[in-house]
């Protein structure tokens, strides 16, 4: 405890203590300014970004659940198709003498159609997932950009006072006047 109080007492004995001034060393002040701006952005933007990501996560999970339900439906269709296939196979035994090749063709067509339907559903599910994921990423990027832009505009507006604003307008009018004289 004595070491802590000694360090505070020793601060009063610094020769530069008590003087106040602006640090004009750009290399020393920019990292401080950047760290303050980044700290403020992280502190205030973290909650919004977390909420956005949570909402996007829930939407993606809902999409995945819907896709899983569709997948279950297709699996049920596949099971019915397999049951039908078993029935067709039993009938094939009865009709083996008369139409074995016809039944075999029907069986292959049924399996191919079911496999094709299942493959299309799987492709649709993957495509939907990729689309939702890309949409979520784009929305988060856009919102982060808008927040950064609003922060920059707020900082810029707070830094401009009326005299600086008047000087900027006057300089721009002078530049435009000089450009007009050049073109004439």
From TrEMBL:
<dbReference type="GO" id="GO:0009535">
    <property type="term" value="C:chloroplast thylakoid membrane"/>
</dbReference>
<keyword id="KW-0934">Plastid</keyword>
<keyword id="KW-0793">Thylakoid</keyword>
<feature type="transmembrane region" description="Helical">
    <location>
        <begin position="32"/>
        <end position="49"/>
    </location>
</feature>
<keyword id="KW-0813">Transport</keyword>
<dbReference type="GO" id="GO:0045259">
    <property type="term" value="C:proton-transporting ATP synthase complex"/>
</dbReference>
<keyword id="KW-0175">Coiled coil</keyword>
<keyword id="KW-1133">Transmembrane helix</keyword>
<dbReference type="Pfam" id="PF00430">
    <property type="entry name" value="ATP-synt_B"/>
</dbReference>
<keyword id="KW-0472">Membrane</keyword>
<keyword id="KW-0375">Hydrogen ion transport</keyword>
<keyword id="KW-0066">ATP synthesis</keyword>
<dbReference type="InterPro" id="IPR002146">
    <property type="entry name" value="ATP_synth_b/b'su_bac/chlpt"/>
</dbReference>
<keyword id="KW-0406">Ion transport</keyword>
<comment type="function">
    <text>F(1)F(0) ATP synthase produces ATP from ADP in the presence of a proton or sodium gradient. F-type ATPases consist of two structural domains, F(1) containing the extramembraneous catalytic core and F(0) containing the membrane proton channel, linked together by a central stalk and a peripheral stalk. During catalysis, ATP synthesis in the catalytic domain of F(1) is coupled via a rotary mechanism of the central stalk subunits to proton translocation.</text>
</comment>
<keyword id="KW-0150">Chloroplast</keyword>
<protein>
    <recommendedName>
        <fullName>ATP synthase subunit b, chloroplastic</fullName>
    </recommendedName>
</protein>
<comment type="similarity">
    <text>Belongs to the ATPase B chain family.</text>
</comment>
<keyword id="KW-0812">Transmembrane</keyword>
<comment type="subunit">
    <text>F-type ATPases have 2 components, F(1) - the catalytic core - and F(0) - the membrane proton channel. F(1) has five subunits: alpha(3), beta(3), gamma(1), delta(1), epsilon(1). F(0) has four main subunits: a(1), b(1), b'(1) and c(10-14). The alpha and beta chains form an alternating ring which encloses part of the gamma chain. F(1) is attached to F(0) by a central stalk formed by the gamma and epsilon chains, while a peripheral stalk is formed by the delta, b and b' chains.</text>
</comment>
<keyword id="KW-0138">CF(0)</keyword>
<comment type="function">
    <text>Component of the F(0) channel, it forms part of the peripheral stalk, linking F(1) to F(0).</text>
</comment>
<feature type="coiled-coil region">
    <location>
        <begin position="64"/>
        <end position="98"/>
    </location>
</feature>
<dbReference type="GO" id="GO:0046933">
    <property type="term" value="F:proton-transporting ATP synthase activity, rotational mechanism"/>
</dbReference>
